[in-house]
Design a protein that fits this description.
This protein is an all-alpha fold. The protein has a domain of 41 residues. Helices cover 60% and strands 0% of the residues. It contains two helices and no strands.
Length: 60
């Protein structure tokens, strides 16, 4: 069903759909994967802090 225009044929529909999909892609946040990785590291931070730190070359 094409709600915008009763005279729109399938080719017009596909063209409009492709244009809208291109607009949606441009709205995605760049660097989102890096933000997700940083969030995962922050979630794991308490577990990482509990691990003993190995110091190389330090006498105990």
């Amino acid at each position: 069903m094409y709600l915008d225009d009763d005279n729109m044929d399938f080719e017009d529909y596909k063209g409009r759909k492709r244009k809208l999909e291109d607009q949606l892609i441009s709205l995605q946040v760049p660097g989102l994967d890096a933000v997700k990785k940083a969030g995962k590291l922050l979630e794991d931070l308490p577990k990482l802090w509990r691990r003993p730190i190995r110091r190389i070359g330090v006498d105990s």
